[in-house]
Amino acid sequence: MSVSSKLKETLVCLKAGRVTLPYPAQARPVPEKFRGRPIFDVTKCTGCAGCANNCPAREILVFDICQEIRVLEYSGLRCTYCGRCADLCPEKAITLSHDFETGTDSIHDNQQRLEIFMSTCQRCGRCFEEPSALEELKMKGYRLDDLANDRWVFRSRSYLEGEPAVEDIPIEMD
Amino acid sequence: MLKNLCQKMFGRSLWVYHANSGGCNGCDIEVLNVLTPYYDVERFGIKLVGSPRHADVMLCQGPAMHSTARALKRAYDAMPAPKLVFAIGSCACGGGIWFDSYPVLGPVERVVPVNYYIPGCPPRPEAIIYGVAVAVGLVDKKTAPIQLKQLVLPIPRYHPNELCGSGEMVVYERAEKV
Questions:
Q1: pTM greater than 0.90 (yes/no)
Q2: Is the Cβ pair B145, A40 closer than 8 Å?
Q3: Burial (0-12, 13-18, 19+ Cβ within 10 Å), A171
Q4: Do A23 and B134 touch (CB under 8 A)?
Q5: Domains of chain B, residue spans
Q6: CB–CB of B82/B73 below 8 Å?
Q7: What are the mean pLDDT values of chain B's consecutive 10-residue runs (178 residues total)?
Q8: Interatomic CA distance for residues A164 and B71, integer angstroms
Q9: Could you identify which of A78, A96, A104, B119 might form a hypothetical disulfide with B94, taking C-beta atoms 3.0 to 4.6 angstroms apart as the criterion?
Q10: pLDDT (tens digit, 9 = 90+) per residue, A111-150?
Q11: Could you say which architecture CATH assigns to the domain B2-136?
Q12: Domains and CATH numbers, chain A
């Protein structure tokens, strides 16, 4: 009785085949929409701190160590990989990678620290005064105007697309 | 000789105890997923036990709460002496999203000493296996702290005293410091 049942079980197991994944030797590709560890790009970041204001886990810390240098620190402790920082970044400096192999023996191994130059006035060294409400609607980030043709070019992608708020100022996206 | 053989054969088989101290059950599901035939960890000798007195490793999920911190400490004290603690998930590593709310004491390492950290919310089953493989010594860890600096100032800056021209046109090169 037991021998026949064992044989039957063996047949069932042989029919099912092997399903175990050979994980540490050979990794399975992650799905396309998988959100892994965020990667910060220091060349694109302008230090607007929108990611720090919108992180639900309060994971990104921003502090100014002097007038020109702003330090942005992602500590990687309690990040839930929600991707809100990457959605919100106006310069697309944060990308969520497919990297999930973050197990370590030290908690500070997932830390990322960015040091960003902030723009100040070239004459007096202070920060620029805030633009008016109408200008703030139209522009965010740096501008790189066309000097030869004497016209404005908005460098930042965070400009609200659609109809311009003021009709008499022509606006070009580069 | 038999003792040496036994140490060689059974030296790295971890018996894990699964302690949830107030998590949302997401990491529990992923840990149980690791034990299924798809991610079969019994090939590494890892086995789930029901009592901390039989365990070598405690898998902590969820933050340390005010109500469960004492029970977690008791479970840690009940484990026999060479013991490891794994913090699995964002809550156990750093306190989670609700790290500053009133019932949460903080990360698990406030109550028990943590040896290995596996962040993620929840971590993939592969990530949990990777963390355990780092602990056992099968693979090397891949992460290290990153520091990024902008080396070149994005706009040129000059000292005000240098901005006095003489002649037709004076070209100021990019200055590093004011």
A1: no
A2: no
A3: middle
A4: no
A5: 2-136
A6: no
A7: 66 84 90 88 86 91 91 92 90 87 90 91 90 84 81 58 63 52
A8: 61
A9: A78
A10: 888 888 776 655 665 555 444 455 545 555 555 566 666 6
A11: 3-Layer(aba) Sandwich (3.40)
A12: 31-129 (3.30.70.3270), 138-174 (no CATH)
- Cβ pair A101:B121 closer than 8 A: no
Q: Classify burial at A5, counting beta carbons within 10 Å of its beta carbon; exposed 0-12, middle 13-18, buried 19 or more.
A: exposed
Nearest to B87 by CA among A35, A79, A76, A107: A107
B120: closest CA of chain A, how far (Å): 6
Q: Select the residue of A19, A78, A123 nearest B90 (Cβ to Cβ).
A: A78
Name, in order, each residue with C-beta under 8 angstroms of B102's C-beta and a sequence gap of 6 or more: none
What's the maximum distance between 2 C-alpha atoms anywhere in chain B?
Answer: 93
Which residue among A20, A104, A112 sits closest to B148, beta carbon to beta carbon?
A: A112
Residues of chain B with Cβ-Cβ distance to A82 below 8 Å are: 121
